[in-house]
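Hello Y.,

Per our agreement to keep a running log of every chain we model this quarter, I'm adding this entry. I've kept the format consistent with earlier entries: sequence first, then predicted structure.
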Amino acid sequence: FVTVGCNQNSKETDTSGATYTPGTYVETVMSMRGNLTVEVVVDEKSITSVKVLEHVDTPVIADAAIDVIPNAIIEGQTLAVDTVTGATLTSFAILSAATQALTQAGGDISKLRAAQPKQPKTAGSDEEYDIVIVGAGGAGLGASIEILKDSQLKVLVLEKLAYTGGSTRVAGGAMWMANTPRNEEAGINFTPEELIEFMERRSEAEVNRPYVTRIGEITGPVASYLLEQEAPFNPERHSLGHSDSKLFTLSPVNPGAGYGGGILVDFLTDQATKLGAEIRLNSKATALLTEGNKVIGVSVEDKFNTYNVLAKKVILATGGFTRNEDMVREFAPEYTNNIPFTGAGSTGDGITMTRDLNVEIVGNDMMSLKGLNNNFGYYGKIGGLVNVPGIIVNKEGKRFASERLFYSEIGIHINRQTDKTVYGIVDGESTRIEDLEAAVEMGLVYKADTLEELADVAGISKEDFLTTMSEYEKVRKSGKDDPEFGVTNDRMAVITTSPYYAVPIRPLFIGSIPGLLVNEKSEVITKTGEAIENLYACGELVFGNVFNKYYPSSGTGVGVAIYTGSIAGESAKQSIINK
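Predicted structure for the entry above:
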């Protein structure tokens, strides 16, 4: 079952002094991904209803705020409401729209915003479980499923956000696999040795070979089990995670308005719950409990209580650190000030919680792609415009890399340009004119009738830009391949028709790579090479064992998260059963 913390000691605010002009007030504000509309109903003395009528924010993530904020406003008769962890922008938008509505109703906004005294958190009693999993993303959910599909162990999953999923929820949701019936049907497979070879070739460095071998071995049974349980992968389509690989990859069914990762996470959450996992939301593990050299549990803090959970085994599935700028500066300084397009909980908790255990950090660089901004990333009709341009220039007006590089490789090059900003150039013959115009209207994309004017409005060095465009067009018309970056002539873009658009493109994180060193059982290893007793790690927290430099292929983030979660879950389970 899923439990959400609630304040049993909450007390309704005294509203005797409130006065409103009775009626229904509707206000629209800009939220994370577009307009959000709120309806507020008041009588003379109180707020009687708050409803979100329309929004285009990410499903489930936005829902967490929509379920909580309006009720909190009504119950407390106040605007001094805490934002929902992991849905901050939607929370702010709801509060902003409600504030505008209550202003129209004649409410005293300063009083409505006055903070109420907070109740001190209560120290709760210790609890005991066989296994506690910290984090309910793809890795944590995968670990719980692996434990409970053939055991009756008592498993608690702690999630500090108001919803499950972590970065998996905002991912595309693709996952590569081997040795499943789907592989046999397609005639595409890979061995652990081929997986190691691919990861090392893409990483340009040696990886944790015993661990990657174990991932290659476990993908078959884990993926087959998920397919048997009718995991929501598209039965009609498959692809290769990278053209230079044998990584057979499936994607979730048509996600509609949401991300494919969200559909997969909902499936994993349902599976874990059906098998008996207890998932506690809004519950943050703040520290590991130790006894000598072994881990014996975690300290937990929810909205109203603090308590300890004692456990035979602890699995850290806390995700990465893309939203912790200090940690980015520490482990990947070249990538500071990039856009995090990851789970809101990616603040490096697993590294923070193990700082005093002499752990070894492995891996380098970050998983960096190209994106529009924090709100749209590279998804949807607006964010997806970063993938439309056939020619990309930097602020100096020059091309700097082949536009046909694998999408994670181009991210590294963008990261090294002036102000970490480049521009994709599109002309009036684009099939995405409607979306480009919408983005122009939103102030996200530049537009001009000539290339000279486009350089001016976008802030691109005009002389070099015009030279770049002229030389590019000469090569294209010649019928020859691009001599500088090796783009074949048939794939060179045609930029000749007014109006012209410049799409700003910036480096965007989909994950971090540096993380805890583990062995083939997913046990956390110290700098002296010893396994920390009872402590396991998985998911993004251990990506540095599997690949380096950049995101190696589609399907790797979700796949490695679930597979490493399964390794950690199986290892922890067997350690308990075999004692």
